[in-house]
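Problem 12. The chain below contains 336 residues. Write out its predicted structure in token notation.
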Amino acid sequence: MKHIFILAALLMYFSACNPGQRAGDDAAITLTDVQGNKVLLNKPAEKIVCLFEPMLDAIYMLQVQHKLVGIPAETYSDKEAFVPFSLIDERIRDKRLAIPGSNETANLESILALKPDLVIAKHMSDGTIQSLKDMGIAVYLASSEKYDQVLKELEDVGLLTGAVERAHELVAYTKQQFDTMQLAAAAVPEKDKKKAYFTWANGRIYATTGRNSMMNDCLEFAGVWNACTAPVDQPNINAETLISWNPDMIVMWNDPADLFYNKQELSGIKAVKNKAIYNLMPMFFYNPHTLKSTIAATRIKGWATGQTEEAALQEVKKMIVTYYGPVIGNQLITLL
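Solution.
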């Protein structure tokens, strides 16, 4: 009962502080997100609660992080996220930015207390979305599942935050990178393309990526075949299936290669025999649900073509500085 009274009081307070602020259909900024949710703002957002890490990443790339008032809870609890974000934002380092939940677990009271004009999430109940809109708070839902979505969402958030020019620069750069990689991949004879098996983190070596996924796009842009032909996002397979695929190389997501080398039943696989097992780590730099999918693809291409480690890291560093700008970018590359 106490929580109901608190929420009611917050709703009344927020309404009193924002009379007539709810944007109508004639709003200056109007768009529809990839999940079909209509987003209206009278002007670019000044206070943002972001509950979805790929979009938090986009906000730093857009260089509008000063508008953040709330971030995903896992930013503090997940070391893979906390270390890089704390390096580039002292508010995260000191845990001063509010963490009003994460997507479905978002706390409405906590969000309202921050008085944002924009909330960005991946999932949120219809009731919560409507309550926020009733208070004049725009809600943007992102997915970041495929290449085209990642680009659209970056441009959308650029529009919603007043960083349109920066968003256009980032999208143009990303398209140029992928176009260049596509041309290079198309020039490789089919018979010479390597077959790659991708596996997700936390020891899940039989959890891979299907053809309907952003990581599949990364593999294709890198000029290699995805060993998995399943038309889904993240299928689970077994040892027999992996052996039958017999990939030339294995790309791991932040796990040790010994997870493969220590399994006797997998010793006959070409990638295992030839020690062609590679690792995308630290994960922050290769997140396929952000513009950094270009970096993941570049790294995979380097492994497939025998590029030296030094040359590969130089490419990665250059792309990080381009995506985040010299100030943040040069801080981040100290982690490589």
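Discussion. The chain is about 45% helix and 10% strand. Students who got a different answer should revisit the alignment rule from Section 12.3.
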